[in-house]
Design a protein that fits this description.
six-stranded antiparallel β-sheet, globular, 27% strand, 3 helices, alpha+beta
Length: 128
């Protein structure tokens, strides 16, 4: 599948997530890359992108405050998934938070703190 098809798939999924209380953002159309993030109803940030081997599906990272020790996020699910649903995002958030706690990573106080520091904010568009 081509990236523009993956993009439409992500847009469609984000539109459904938006109906369930998520705030969704995707990179503006670019043939070189495709990713986005959702802000959960619990105000956590889940980053979404295709796996390195695109056929394997979508991967998720929980974003937290960057540090030398822990980077800026951790993988949420052990394996990529083929679809993005509210239930999958809830499970990704749950597992990501458990892993972040084990790492003793510092979560953002709220999503606004993350958005205020997002250096490439102009490269995203909100999906409603």
């Amino acid at each position: 599948m081509k990236k523009n098809n993956y993009r439409q798939e992500l847009v469609n999924s984000m539109q459904e997530l938006s109906k369930n209380g998520y705030r969704c953002f995707i990179t503006k159309e670019n043939p070189s890359f495709l990713y986005g993030f959702v802000i959960t109803p619990s105000d956590n940030i889940i980053y979404i992108q295709r796996d390195s081997f695109h056929f394997r599906g979508w991967t998720f990272d929980l974003k937290y405050k960057p540090s030398q020790k822990n980077g800026s996020g951790c993988q949420c699910l052990e394996n990529p998934v083929q679809e993005i649903t509210p239930e999958i995002i809830q499970e990704a958030e749950k597992q990501g938070l458990m892993f972040a706690r084990r790492l003793k990573a510092t979560l953002y106080n709220n999503s606004n703190e993350y958005l205020d520091k997002l250096w490439n904010a102009s490269e995203y568009e909100k999906i409603i």
